[in-house]
Amino acid sequence: MDIFTSLLDFYSYIDSNTAFFLSSVFLLSLMIGSFLNVVIYRLPIMLKCEWKNDCIEFLSELSDSNEDKDVKNCSNNPQEEKTEIFNLSVPRSRCPSCGHQITALENIPVISWLFLKGKCSACHHPISIRYPLVELCTALFSVLVAYTYGIQWFTLAALILTWSMIALAIIDFDTQLLPDDITLPIMWLGVLMSLLSISSITLESSVIGLMIGYGSLWSIYQLFKILTGKEGMGFGDFKLLALLGAWLGWQSLPLILLLSALVGSIVGISLILLLGRDKNIPIPFGPYLASAGFISLIWGEQIKHTYLNMMLS
Ligand SMILES: [Zn+2]
């Protein structure tokens, strides 16, 4: 049997065995969830380091060109500062409390956390339940995507979109940042998927979705700024809605905006009423946009059909 036939056999096995397909997606996504935890924690730190270094460099250039001694003295020299390498793979994960290096056995998604009873094996410092929760949610959402779209290339694309949404939602919740390093490549990937006819959205609908997605929030932002003098959202939010427009088409944008406003106001009002949160603290909009985008990805067509039926009957 040559490789091609065995691949074909394997494909027909997965195709006829949905349980095997879905459990493979579940296990793979648990590991992706573990990686997302790393991205969620490290990417904002990496960005802030980068901005800080850029600022220091800019200030030192400024003072080099200036004869004024005071300007020269107050600037930091980036060469003097020894910076340690910090990226997604280096250094290895450590316990934030005692510095104990996490071993491979302690790094198994969900299971290690349960086995360690949510504590560091060296110093028994508690490990946040958020880590296994992110892994579990990533796996469950991914299975939902795989179940909805079945075995086709678009499923893989939709999984990448889902994983990015999870990372963006939590990073925005934590730091009020929506990193361009995620939004921009995933936005263009959405356009590419329609260009290659991998997604069911036409290229026209994708590009218009991108433009209207960005433009609509940008206009709301400008209007809000004129009326109240405050900045209600960040530019990351515009890019996130542009991304969703590129993936799901401009026709999905009203539903996404409606859903995110609905979820956002329910959560926002509950936070103010139940937890006594100060209503002047800005609430990041990214998590709601991301949730609304995911709901449209899975149930968008059904919601639109139900709505149309309700209107017609
Ligand atoms: Zn420890």
Description:
This protein is mainly α. It has two domains: 3-88; 152-312, no CATH class. Helix content is 70%, strand content 0%. It starts with a helix and ends with a helix. The structure holds zinc ion. Zinc ion (ZN) is lined by residues 95, 97-98, 100, 120, 122-123, 125. Zinc ion (ZN) binds at residues 95, 97-98, 100, 120, 122-123, 125.
Cα Rg: 23 Å
End-to-end separation in angstroms reads 58 Å
Shape: globular
Integer tally of domains:
2
- Given as residue ranges, the uncertain stretches (5+ residues, pLDDT < 50) are none
- Which structural class do you get from the secondary structure elements? mainly alpha
Which structural traits does this protein have?
313 residues, mainly alpha, 2 domains, globular, binds zinc ion
Brief overview:
This protein is mostly helical and 313 residues long. The protein contains 11 helices and no strands.
Provide the fold topology.
Blueprint: H1 3-16, H2 18-64, H3 69-74, H4 111-115, H5 130-149, H6 153-175, H7 180-195, H8 203-228, H9 235-248, H10 253-274, H11 286-312
Helix pairs in contact: 2-5, 2-6, 5-6, 6-7, 6-11, 7-8, 7-9, 8-9, 9-11, 10-11
